[in-house]
Design goal:
Elements (H helix, E strand, L loop, with lengths): L1 H21 L18 E4 L3 E2 L8 H16 L3 E3 L5 E17 L5 E16 L7 E12 L4 H25 L3
Parallel strand pairs: 1-3, 1-4, 2-4
Antiparallel strand pairs: 4-5, 5-6
Helix pairs in contact: 2-3
Length: 173
Amino acid sequence: MRPLRILLLPLVTVAALFAAGGCSVKYSFSGASVNYALSKTVSVAYFTNMAAMVAPILSPTLTDELTSKLASQTRLQVVREEGDLAFSGEIIGYSSDPVSISGNEYATQNRLTITVRVKFVNKNEPQYNFEKTFSNYEDYDTNVLLTQAEGTLIPQIVEKLVDDIFNEALSNW
């Protein structure tokens, strides 16, 4: 019994030191790595559509999806403006192009591509600030008009874009 107590004493001491707050670890099941001691709030400015082609649902879908992900995947409080972490940007590309051509030179698949320029500001840890362009796409059949496919394609593409933006800003592994 005595040798077991000698082995457990150092383990208990180390555990007590960690429990007393001697160490701080940033960890989350969502993949977000946020220093909550420094950052309490996040703001997302409305993403304006500056692309040559405009889909009316794109700007609100992107802004809302990013805001929702931040609210559900972090402990940050979402505020209108001036968050400790702040996202802003604009949609700079929205295009549909043929990607698959059949033997008789007709397109069989089109690709809808959305490109977004994002500015991320971390007021308390400016080394994580960035301005970066993100782009993603989905393919659709040429038998379907773009206006018919947008309702499905835009949410799918926006989800990928938001994941990329979120990971770039908050996954500092």
